[in-house]
Amino acid sequence: MKITKICCIGAGYVGGPTMAIIAQKCPQIQVTVVDLNEERIAAWNDADVNNIPIYEPGLSEIVKEARGRNLFFSTAVDQAIDEAEMIFISVNTPTKTYGKGKGMAADLKYIELCARQIARVSKSNKIVVEKSTLPVRTAEAIKSILDNTGNGVKFQILSNPEFLAEGTAVQDLLHPDRILIGGDTTAEGQKAIQALVDVYANWVAVDKILTTNVWSSELSKLTANAFLAQRISSINAMSELCEKTGADVNEVARAIGMDSRIGPKFLKASVGFGGSCFQKDILNLVYIAKSYGLQEVADYWEQVIIMNDHQKRRFSDTIVKTLYNTVSDKKIAFLGWAFKKDTNDTRESAAIYVADDLINENAKIAVYDPKVSRKKVLADLDYLQTRTADENAKSILSFENPYEACSNAHAVAILTEWDEFVAYDWQKIYDAMQKPAFVFDGRNILDKAVLEKIGFVYQAIGS
Ligand code: UDX
Ligand code: ADP
Asked: Which of 56, 130, 339 to mutate to test the pocket of ligand 1 (most atoms within 8 A of CB)?
């Protein structure tokens, strides 16, 4: 089966960049990205490509090249579903905030709504591709909805998990380590898999395209994220020990990273991992393990999250302790709010939790992030429901300019590893701060010797 039209439901961090690359690499395929959110679609269609809703290095250029040629953004969901032979589901699957599995299981209501919509609209056979991270055996639920509510139309369900990391999405999509496609072992299933393999084969070597059954593919995604997050929690656990013993976690990471069995990546100690995937996927894994009665397996993975929460709390505790046990009415400047550099995404960012802790101690937080607005910062805090929106607004001072954010502050905390922070005029920042001037480097990006020479009291994670 040759694919000529693709529809992607969900124009977010996964759907947007993924479809932009497919459109760029497959000019013969018409790619339509749809979303219920009119504002988001309008932003994707903005005449100035710099205003697209998602910031990723290199993305706006690709959108500029393909948009209007074979890449379209629209709110006409039904029409795009009807026309396409292949439909990607890239809607959000947040952790449930209610009912059974609250705080752990993935909320599949958006997925189910999509499946019902596809079933209602489709008049011809379709291949449905799960792109969002989904718990094992979700495909079964989608299949059952499609097969029982459709009008005789035949659906094939594939799982094609996304391994792109935000901030490097374009490079990850252009040069993936592997593409994973799970499908039915039946002849029709294999045909559907082949149709998707043919799409990727436009720019990915076929030996990098792995095909598996649906369940292996779904579980592989959760496993990959659980392993990566576990490494960060492991090195973060060591960072605390390093601080107590005089070892330096960066040196330890370098030493163990040169062991080829361990490798150098994902060993950067930090204030804690964030992002839309790690926490959610591990909680999901824990929930699945529990639901099969595997308590030890569940506890094992849950510890990765417990360690991560501890690391965030430890960072805010250190700030309070070091500032003579009180931050009440003190201005603390946050450099960075995004969960990592090169993205405007703030989901589960450590900054949110550290700020929340410090506001509980009556601190005033001045935030500067090159890609995050005050509105977003406040929305993130309001979402925690620790206090009223009014109270949050009073506690957050935000500035367009990092030097203003740091001016008169008692301490600067680095929450995101943006490159530009390293290049700042730290002497100028020092001169404008309250003394003693403290820097808490939650990302280990600044040079201790340089800052101490200026006069800062400098504390990094893990040394
Ligand atoms: C992750 C996976 O990497 C990706 O494959 C998956 O598809 C989605 O989830 P992402 O969340 O975008 O991607 O970012 P990632 O680079 O994995 O970073 C996650 C968090 O861990 C960030 O907060 C980052 O700052 C932190 N991190 C990462 C560390 O603290 N130390 C490290 O060594 C690496
Ligand atoms: P991700 O990081 O997984 O891409 P996002 O939250 O950035 O998650 O994007 C998911 C998008 O899916 C949102 O823009 C949301 O409006 C959209 N969405 C959710 N449900 C539907 C639906 N039934 N139809 C169309 N779009 C949907």
From this structure: 339
Provide the whole-model pTM: 0.94
Q: Using one digit for the tens of pLDDT, what is the confidence trace for 273-285?
A: 999 899 999 998 9
What is the token pair recorded at 245?
A: 């013993």
Please tell me the distance from the alpha carbon of residue 403 to that of residue 428, in angstroms, as a whole number: 8
Amino acid 109: pLDDT: 86
* CB-based contact 339:274 (threshold 8 Å): yes
240 is catalytic: no
Q: Ligand 1 centre from 81 Cα, in Å?
A: 32
Q: What is the pLDDT of residues 124-175, one digit of tens each?
A: 999 999 987 666 667 777 888 888 876 789 999 999 999 999 999 999 999 9
Q: Is 28 buried (19+), middle (13-18) or exposed (0-12) by CB count in 10 A?
A: exposed
Distance between alpha carbon 84 and the CA centroid of its chain, in Å? Answer: 28
Q: Catalytic annotation on 65?
A: no
195 C-alpha vs ligand 2 centroid, how far in Å? Answer: 25
Whole-number Å distance between alpha carbons of 403 and 407: 6
Task: Determine which one of 114, 130, 131, 162 is catalytic.
Answer: 162
- Rounded to the nearest integer, the mean pLDDT of the chain is 95
**pLDDT score, position 134:** 67
Q: Is 162 a catalytic residue?
A: yes
For residues 340 and 152, what is the distance between their CA atoms, to the nearest angstrom? 46
40 CA distance to ligand 2 centroid (A)? 10
